[in-house]
Hints:
Blueprint: H1 2-10, H2 18-30, H3 36-39, H4 46-52, H5 56-69, H6 79-95, H7 100-107, H8 115-132
Amino acid sequence: MLSDTVRKYYIGDCDLNCAEAMLYAANEEYGMLLDKKALKTMAAFGGGMGIEEACGAMTGGLAALGVLFVKDRAHESDRIKRLSKEFIEAFKEKLSTENCRKLKDIHREDASKCEYIVVTAAELLDKIVDREGFRG
Length: 136
């Protein structure tokens, strides 16, 4: 399950931010075959892009959706827009906001950091990926 894999990358010895942990976990779980350079693209998205805005767990999940469900470019169909919207709406419904600063105020714990947020994002992403029938 993606939620178990994301824990490994977020809480484990990997020392990854929330956005990185989401993409690394999705890469492993779904066999996306992203190289290190592609995985590093999420480094700047942790901590709400460094300014506590859009949650890194959410942006990492969106990155995974793009890799999984876009063949060439976003404008080839409305699929990625639909899936992105669904993921963001489910994220906000479950966690109350997509804003990093607000999420930290509500859900962050000193010992586990933002584990609850990251695991929740992974569970939501996994539901979409399973429903859409992706096979890595």
